[in-house]
């Protein structure tokens, strides 16, 4: 998606070797007009699929998922991050290792919102090692729902998540795939 790539080139800030900060339009301040274009592009790419629900993870995925849902005409569920180990009640849960913070946390979704047979599209802002998507995919499997695929805004293709999850059969549509990046030379895209 050329508009997104241009924006990353212009406003993305590279930290160290593997973190891309996009706080000015995606992760802190949000460019809603750009989100609308992102939502339309997800809809175009998954036009062949029935999508009953979009599932994302708090916090950064929520805004993107909500705007995208307006084009899919479906509800959004966001998996909540939960600090406590013992989670009682009617929830599906899985563990995710945070890429940006390095720690492990639980994510939960209430069983009443994720039903057997639901056709679920995952949406997230970044794909790096794939832990967040894997955690979300497990919630979908545990619910007996059907995983349609995953829509990712920025995939860091030099990290292993995308390749591994595609090899496992997950359909992933990434709107910008970063092949390499460095503070000196900037961002290079894969396609
Ligand atoms: P993964 O679980 O695939 O390793 O990482 C994906 C999650 O980590 C995303 O939900 C995103 O919030 C965060 N993340 C991973 N890499 C980056 C990055 O380079 N920049 C930002 N802003 N977030 C990232």
What would your notes on this structure say?
- It is built from six helices and ten strands, in the order αββααβαββββαβαββ.
- The protein is α/β, with parallel strands linked by helices and 191 residues long.
- It has an eight-stranded mixed beta sheet with strand order 5-6-4-3-7-8-9-10, sandwiched between helices. It has a two-stranded antiparallel sheet with strand order 1-2.
- Helix 3 crosses helix 4.
- Guanosine-5'-monophosphate binds next to strand 2, strand 7 and helix 5.
In short, what is this structure?
With 191 residues, the protein is of the alpha/beta class.
Mean pLDDT: 95
Q: Which series of helices and strands comes N to C?
A: HEEHHEHEEEEHEHEE
Instruction: Provide the structure class.
Output: alpha/beta
Envelope shape = globular
Strand order of the largest sheet: 5-6-4-3-7-8-9-10
List bound small molecules: guanosine-5'-monophosphate
Low-confidence stretches: none
In total, the number of strands is 10
Helicity, as a percent range: 25-40%
Tell me the Rg in angstroms: 16 Å
Strand content: 35-45%
Strand count, sense and barrel status of the largest sheet are: 8 strands, mixed
Q: In angstroms, what separates the terminal alpha carbons? A: 10 Å
| Count of DSSP H/I helices | 6
């Amino acid at each position: 998606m050329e508009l997104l790539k241009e924006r990353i080139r212009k406003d993305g800030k590279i930290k160290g070797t593997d973190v891309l900060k996009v706080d000015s339009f995606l992760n802190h301040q949000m460019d809603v007009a750009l989100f609308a274009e992102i939502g339309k592009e997800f809809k175009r790419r998954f036009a062949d699929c029935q999508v009953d629900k979009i599932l994302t993870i708090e916090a950064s995925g929520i805004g993107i998922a909500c705007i995208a849902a307006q084009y899919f005409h479906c509800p959004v569920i966001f998996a909540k991050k939960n600090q406590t180990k013992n989670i009682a009640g009617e929830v599906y849960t899985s563990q995710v290792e945070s890429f940006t913070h390095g720690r492990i946390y639980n994510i939960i979704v209430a069983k009443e919102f994720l039903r057997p047979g639901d056709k679920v599209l995952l949406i997230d802002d970044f794909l790096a090692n794939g832990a967040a998507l894997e955690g979300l995919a497990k919630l979908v499997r545990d619910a007996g729902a059907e995983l349609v695929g995953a829509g990712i805004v920025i995939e860091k293709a030099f990290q292993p998540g995308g390749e591994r999850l595609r090899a496992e059969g997950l359909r992933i549509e990434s709107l910008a795939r970063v092949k390499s990046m460095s503070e000196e030379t900037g961002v290079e895209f894969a396609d």
